[in-house]
Design goal:
The protein is α/β, with parallel strands linked by helices. Helix content is 36%, strand content 16%. The radius of gyration is 26 Å and the shape is elongated.
Length: 333
């Protein structure tokens, strides 16, 4: 072989090596970068976490479950979420039932082996911050990046559900659902604009304790009130001693305090189950003579509200329809 030909061969090999090196950079070209998923830093309850930019296998728990299902996230495992079943569409319920359950209803019921077997590249925990202590986060982190995005005050489900969908890279369908909800809420707000803004409302929640003789009063921003507020409803008053989470917007007075709590109300609402049945804690209030003697009740202006625990835009669409159905009599008076 001549020296000249050998030099040309060496030059060709060198060029090939240079081109291969260029292809292995992080610009998305061929080479190693094609095998290394891109990442981003995501701010969650548990800090700033490096997660896949485009997750392919997601495990979700708690309040993140219905959000991820509605947003069509790439789920490979979820926790049980029975409380949300009545608010799911038939399609979402079928998806929910089909998915592998890697945790129970409670955070402490997390099956770490089942999570590992699902081979997730992202784990989204949707439980309140105080409950996070019931989960071995370090153990989960050994399986995949973990982002904790749990509920705070009830009305914050809008922002928190968006963060959950964002973490899973599933914002397209989420944003579409949000726009649909907001359009429907605006339509109903216009429908009731000559009625609701002039009224003072009060709400009885489903979590009073009959044995202790208490009822739950929910103020603005609580589960039973926040979606009605999108229609222009105004729930008066505020918590005497605010706590964390839902206790920042609800309190538990004794049944004897019904007149003091709701005596000024023009309209009263109360939480009922998805099928319209009345929870025991609410029935306890409705059976009270003190309730029956309230001005709003005597005027026939007490209304049941279904789907009051909606925490996704899809669920909240059902809540809007239920509120519209209950408030319809107000337009005739």
């Amino acid at each position: 072989m001549s020296m000249r030909r050998s030099s040309g061969l060496i030059g060709a090999v060198s060029l090939a090596l240079v081109l291969a090196a260029c292809g292995s950079s992080d610009d998305g070209g061929s080479g190693d970068s094609a095998k290394t998923p891109k990442t981003r830093v995501f701010t969650a309850d548990n800090g700033k976490i490096t997660i896949p930019a485009d997750p392919k296998r997601v495990v979700a728990t708690g309040y993140a479950v219905p959000v991820m299902i509605e947003a069509d996230a790439p789920l490979v495992g979820i926790s049980s979420w029975k409380r949300g079943e009545p608010m799911m569409t038939d399609e979402d319920l079928a998806t929910y039932k089909k998915l592998t359950k890697v945790a129970g209803e409670q955070a402490a019921e997390t099956n770490y082996e089942a999570v590992a077997e699902a081979e997730p590249d992202l784990i989204v925990i949707g439980v309140p911050a105080p409950v996070l202590g019931d989960i071995d986060v370090k153990r989960l982190e050994s399986i995949a990046p973990v982002v904790a995005i749990g509920p705070t005050v009830p009305s914050a489900w809008r922002e928190l559900s968006r963060k959950q969908a964002d973490a899973a890279g599933a914002l397209d369908k989420f944003d579409a659902a949000q726009k649909t909800y907001e359009a429907k809420a605006a339509e109903l707000k216009a429908k009731y604009e000559d009625v609701l803004p002039q009224l003072k409302l009060g709400h009885v929640g489903a979590y009073g304790e009959v044995a202790k003789g208490t009822f739950q009063r929910e103020f603005g921003g609580s589960w039973g009130t926040n979606i009605a507020e999108d229609l222009g409803a105004s729930y008066y008053g505020k918590v005497k001693e605010a706590g964390e989470g839902s206790r920042a917007v609800s309190e538990y007075p004794s049944i004897e305090e019904l007149p003091a709590a709701f005596g000024e109300a023009d309209v009263l609402t109360y939480s009922v189950n998805a099928d319209g049945s009345v929870p025991e804690a609410v029935q306890y209030v409705l059976d009270s003579k003190l309730w029956k003697n309230l001005p709003a009740v005597k005027a026939g202006k007490s209304f049941p509200l279904r789907y009051t625990e909606a925490a996704t835009y899809g669920q909240a669409m059902k809540t809007l329809d239920a509120i519209d159905e209950s408030f319809a009599p107000l337009l005739k008076r």
